[in-house]
Every structure is written in C-alpha cells, then in structure tokens.
Amino acid sequence: MMDAFNAATVGRDRGGPAQPLLSVSNIVKHFGGRRSWGGRCIRGAVRAVDDVSFDVAKGETLGIVGESGCGKSTVARLIMQIIPADAGEMLFDGETVGTDALDLATYRREVQMVFQDSYASLNPRLTVEETVAFGPRVHGLGRQAAIVRAHDLISRVGLDPTRFATRYPHELSGGQRQRVNIARALALQPRLVILDEAVSALDKSVEAQVLNLLIDLKSEFGLTYVFISHDLNVVRFMSDRVLVMYLGKLVELGPSDVLLATPRLHDGTACFDAVDGSRSPRH
Questions:
Q1: Other Cβ atoms within 10 Å of 120 Cβ, number
Q2: 98-105, long-range: CB < 8 A, 24+ apart
Q3: Contact 126/110 with Cβ under 8 angstroms?
C-alpha cells in the first residue's frame, strides 16, 4: 500500500516524462566589478557563472564537476534561488520560476538542497525531530503531523527515532548529521534534490553508506538529483550524465560512463555538445 508521503508526490508531473524537470537557459551570475549607472557591469567582475544552459531530465542524476572556483556551487545556489541571477531563465516542469505560475514558496517545496558542511547547515538549538519538522510546519502542516513525518523520515535515512529524535547536532557524528540533512531535505516532499559536495567531508566508509542511502531514497521517492562533487569516482558511481564546468562556463556534457572514460579538452578538440550530448567539434 502506498504511504502518505508517496501518495503526496503522485500527480505533480505536469508535462510527462519527455519534458525536462529543470531547464536552465543562458544563466549568468557575476560578482563585483565596476558598474554603470544602469547596473551593467563595465569591467573587473568575477564571472562565476557565464551563460550556462542545461536540462535535467525527470528521474536522472546529473553530476556537476570542475575545479574549485569554477562555479559549481554558484549554479546550485542559483537553482535554489538563494542568490538572484543577473540574466537567464529557469523552467521547472515547463513553468517559469519566480512568476505567478510558479512562485518561490511553491518552487521551494519542489526543490531542496543538501549542503557540504553537515554541522554548519543545522541549527544547534533544534533537536533532530525539530529540524526535520521545521520546514513542513513553516509550509502549513500541523505540529503533530510534522513530528510524525519527521520520525518517519528519520527512520528512512537509517536512524532510530527513539534514540536520535531528541538529540542535538553536537551529539551526532558527521555521517549522522548528514543523514539528518537528507531527511530535512525530503520533509517537504521535493521532486528535485541538489547535493552540493554532500559527502566530501565524510570518511570513506561513511561516504559509501550515505551514497547507497541516496540511491535507495531516489528509487523509493522517485527523486531527481543534481549531484555536485570534485570526486570523479563518486560522480561516476552516482550520475547518469556529467556536466563539466571551467571558469564559469559549461565546457562538456554527456553520459557519465563515456565522458569520464574519454574526457576532452576545450581547446578545439571534439567534446560533447551542451544540448543533446552528441559528439561534435567545438572550436
């Protein structure tokens, strides 16, 4: 029998499986620099994200890789609308983000994020159950129903609610805190989860447990992932496709097994096309 959590996720697919869940078009984010009176940057800006476009299909895991400072985390924050884009457009299941058709409150119920620092992203004054129940309560769920959902999710991420529900973040290990962050991200029943270096701070044995947990939860809840990491072995294990960034630009995009087996330079040699993933020369 389908439980209440899964039942709530049914019927939200507006465009069918062929329509991308997320479409990012020509998104731009520059920091600093000298600007004109009209707000246009004249010179000196850091081009953190520079005219990047990609789609995320429903049910897939899109890996994003690149060296430190290439714009991976900025892309994640732009998708989450934590910071505003300077230009570009985002569609979520065919609807423009930030418009009357899809306001930010509705959008953020559909899209959640797990951050790299498992301790800094938790409120030290809230217990585990309060942390997981906080989002549903803010979005209108009653206190008792939110606590019941929190206990269910705490159990699903591999923690015993009778032991961990009343603990505070400082009483948990790094792996346990990241499991709480995952439970919190799932509490609003999202369709897309952004994982920004979510396992990079964990020991290898704990990392493997969390990665296997993410795969199980993706299958159980029908999730779509954007998985950001600098560890190519982890990206190969998790991702269906991989997007490579360099100096704020998208330089390669394609199936993970092919792309990671035969990486290409962006100096005119063949690489994956950013639109359809086919091989084409780029000059």
A1: 10
A2: 105/139
A3: no
- Answer positive or negative: Cα dihedral of 230, 234, 236, 241: negative
Residue 77 to residue 147: CA distance in whole angstroms = 28
DSSP state of 83: S
Strands of the chain (E only): list them: 22-31, 34-35, 41-43, 46-56, 61-65, 87-92, 95-96, 111-114, 192-196, 224-228, 241-246, 249-255, 270-272, 279-281
Residues making up the chain, counted from first to last: 283
Q: What is the DSSP string of 182-211?
A: HHHHHTT--SEEEEESTTTTS-HHHHHHHH
Three-state DSSP state, 43: strand
The backbone region for 98, taken as left when phi is positive above 0, alpha when psi lies in -120 to 50, beta otherwise, is: left
Domain boundaries, the chain: 18-281
Query: What topology is assigned to 18-281 in CATH?
Result: Rossmann fold (3.40.50)
Residue closest to 213 by CA, chosen among 201, 198, 231, 229: 198
pTM to 2 decimal places: 0.84
Q: How wide is the angle at C-alpha 137 spanned by C-alphas 133 and 140, nearest 5°? A: 150
Please write the tens of the pLDDT for every residue from 7-51: 445 557 777 778 999 999 999 998 876 666 655 655 667 888 989
Residue type, 210: V
pLDDT digits (tens, 9 = 90+) for 117-138: 888 989 999 999 999 999 999 9
Distances in whole angstroms, Cα of residue 226 to Cα of each of 54, 65, 149, 213: 12, 11, 24, 16
* Paired strand residues for 168: none
